[in-house]
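Case study: SprT-like family protein.
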Amino acid sequence: MNGAVDWNTLLYETWISLSKFSGRSAPQIKKVELKFYPYRNGGSSLLWKKGTLFGKIHESFLAADQATAESLAKLLISRILGRAENSDWKESVQNYLNGQSYKPRRTKIYSPRGKHYDLERIFSRIRSLYFEQDDLEGMRIEWSPRMGKRRLGTYDRETKTVRISPVLDRPEVPEFVIDHIVHHEILHHLYPVLRWKSRNIIHGPEFKKKEREFEYFREANRWLKTVYPKMAVLPFFLKSRRN
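Here is what the predicted structure looks like once written out:
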């Protein structure tokens, strides 16, 4: 464990730092008590009680680099203090977990063919239009078994799998929106997390430049920001799945 993170100190200092910007009086912590567990889902949590900060941290973070550890600490403490969670913290933690060997390789494969959209067809078209010269060997795409409303797309580097949330498998969703999300997740395959000045950069300059090469980049983002939040996506989808 060379260069191991001092988790007790990190959590204490992060608590002090975030407390200054929490917008309300934050309780003080007198001590930190941590336990590390091999949870299957990589989950971690913190609880403040009577001056003590209790933590249950996934054991894989014992080998995390400082920047990833800081992202996890900020993410967990911000939830207790009622601060907004930075998306970079979330992605830094998720990307770290995705790359850990403890995570078993999935044996179950889900279908790319949905009720309205065939992801394999979309993937092939996006690949030919934007990534003809890039190495996407071994990559596959599928509809996720989970109906995520916030994370509409994910990329698992270990299995080279792009997953798209099935809440988008509806005729009301423009195909260029799914195209955009597939394009974005392919970029995660080509541009891994960057390390710069003790920080993990999820979407680096080259990533963002390539992302804007997608023809309907602005239209897709506008739809996701204005139309998608107004849609009763989850209730509708759950009902349709039961029929």
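For the exam, be able to explain this: The chain is about 40% helix and 15% strand.
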